[in-house]
Amino acid sequence: ALVPLVFLFPRIQLDRDAGGRLGFVIILTAVAVVVLIAVVAAMGMTGSTGSLERKRLYVHRKFARYYGLEMFYGARKQVFLTFAPYLLILKYGVQTEYLAALLGISALINIIFNPVVGRIIDRWGYRSVMVGDTVILFFVCLLYGFAHRLFSEDTALIIVSVVFILDWMISSASMASSIYVSRISDGKEEMTATLSTGISINHLISVAIALVGGLIWESLGVELLFVLAALMAVGNTLFAISIPRIDRKL
Q1: Which of 187, 199, 213, 220 is the most buried (most CB within 10 A)?
Q2: How much is the pTM?
Q3: In the predicted model, is pLDDT for residue 247 greater than 50?
Q4: φ, ψ for residue 48 (rounded to 5)?
């Protein structure tokens, strides 16, 4: 939230427009100090007692749907983290402070929205949240790809900015898959190993999507990239629907 304020200072704006790095040096230095404080605080924490033995990678048939979901979430994460900001910068020409403001607003909203997602999962079940999240994501991807063709440039920028914040908000619904794992696991060790494996799958797919998506953007255009992302959202929806309903009471 503070990053866009730094870039609003006239001196920093002039320096950036002249090709300088003053604002980025200030921000990254401040981040380094905060990280150092976090390291010191973490070193002062009491270590856990006992040992927890688990496999580095754990694959079991009953978690097949979870692994599939993590593949979709990895692809979705890369679309949001990489291609949505690039869209705002390359297609709409937004400046550093604008994008930083969007990220700050999204983070502040999620402080309130994340617990709300948790309560929705408690009330309606993780399956309903997964399905609803992916349906919204389908329309989010289409607006990313075609807002500039459907609306004027100024209106399209506003729409894509709102969609960007909404995208950040619904991404928190991915916690539903972790709750799904916790409900079908036989113990804490199995749950932890499964979640670790899911994270590995998520990251692997994310890296692959970054490479493939960049080639698609460059050779075939941004519209097709986000159409494919929308189709992945449909696949994610079908996968979520296939998850059996289990007692909603958590």
Answers
A1: 213
A2: 0.83
A3: no
A4: -75, 150
